[in-house]
Amino acid sequence: MARNRRSRTPWFSYSVVAIGGLLMALPFLDMLSSSFKGPGEYGILPYHFLPHHFTWSNYGAAFDQLQLGRLFLNSVIVTAAVTASVLVTSAMGGYALAKLRFRGRDVIFRFILATMMLPPFLLLIPDFIIMLNWPLAGGNNIIGQNGDGGMTTNIVSLMLPFLVSGFGIFLMRQFMIAVPEEMLEAARLDGAGEWRLFYNIILPQTGPVAITLGLITFVGQWNEYIWTSLIASTNPDLMTLPVGIQQLQSFIDPNRTTPIVMAGIIISILPVLITFLFLQRYYVRGVVLSGMK
Q1: Fewer beta carbons below 10 Å: N end or C end of the chain?
Q2: Cα distance between residue 252 and residue 132, in whole Å
Q3: What is the C-alpha to C-alpha distance for residues 151 and 254, in angstroms, rounded to an integer?
Q4: pLDDT tens sequence across 209-251
Q5: In degrees rounded to 5, what are phi and psi of residue 53?
Q6: 80, 74, 73: which is closest to 217 by C-alpha?
Q7: Would you list the DSSP string of 104-173?
Q8: Where is each ABC transmembrane type-1 domain found (predicted)?
Q9: Which superfamily does CATH assign the domain made up of 31-42+51-292 to?
């Protein structure tokens, strides 16, 4: 009896997982199907999942009406710069907090943890004021006054608030603590300095966690909307894909523009989807290793 019950349990578990996976994938499949619908097909009742008139024209219209080339370039530049900066600063900060002994280390670590407790929305206005009064930018003088927009007119303003991640430093620090001190002491006895310890011993062991952090940062920054929309309100040329696609929602006829928006969203998520598929095994390994620690 117990053996038969155990043999039936996996099929039940697989069925639950399959149904849950289908429910989560259903909105994406509906978005993909809607991107091929013709004008006036979206939103009609009764609702039909598959398009009546299959068309590729929505993807061409998305490039024309949304200027996806410029939006895509902005997204790539901002996301690549932020991801690279977070990986470098998190690895170096994590190493310093995990393996170096200096006065105030624990206070700094607690301060970093405290930054993770603040809702990001609380920092929007202070960050915007800092960008607006950035010295010697956008016509500002040395004290950040008398200018015309300050740093908000530059694409760098999209990156600055995200170049350092408290979560990234915390994640790398927690993983690096597990590296045996004996290994580092042996290297020091052989004459290795701190930079060589960091580069030749610590970094090679942090590959899965670094890829996990990079993937989380990449996805989060690629989809970032609120801060970018705030900056883009002063300079529309700084819009990225999420903000630019949302702008099309202001058109009068949503039944005609929604399939184009769906096509734009499909194009915008392809880099994220491809990146995740290639790095999935490293991501899972990094999560497992972090969970074990």
Answers
A1: N
A2: 33
A3: 35
A4: 888 899 889 989 998 988 998 888 888 888 888 888 777 666 5
A5: -125, 100
A6: 80
A7: THHHHHHHHHHHTTS-GGGGHHHHHHHHHT-TTSTT--TTS-S-SSGGGGSGGGGTGGGSS-HHHHHHHH
A8: 72-278
A9: MetI-like (1.10.3720.10)
- Identity of the amino acid at 163: L
> Using only C-alpha atoms, what is the Rg of the chain?
24
Q: Are 264 and 245 in contact (CB under 8 A)?
A: yes
Q: How far apart are the first and last CA of the chain?
A: 39
Look up tokens 């039936």; give the residue.
8
Residue with tokens 């999420």: 242
Q: Are 140 and 133 in contact (CB under 8 A)?
A: yes
Mean pLDDT of 87-99: 91
- If you write DSSP's letter for every residue of the chain in order, what string do you get? -HHHHHHHHHHHHHHHHHHHHHHHHHHHHHHHHHTT--TT-TT-SS--SS-SS--SHHHHHHHHHH-HHHHHHHHHHHHHHHHHHHHHHHHHHHHHHHH---TTHHHHHHHHHHHTTS-GGGGHHHHHHHHHT-TTSTT--TTS-S-SSGGGGSGGGGTGGGSS-HHHHHHHHHHHTTS-HHHHHHHHHTT--HHHIIIIIIHHHTHHHHHHHHHHHHHHHHT--HHHHHHHTT-GGG--HHHHHHHGGGSS-HHHHHHHHHHHHHHHHHHHHHHHHHHHHHHHHHHHHHHH-
Residue 169: its pLDDT value, please?
A: 93
Closest CA to 194 of 108, 106, 92: 92
The pair phi, psi for residue 37, each rounded to 5°, is -80, 150
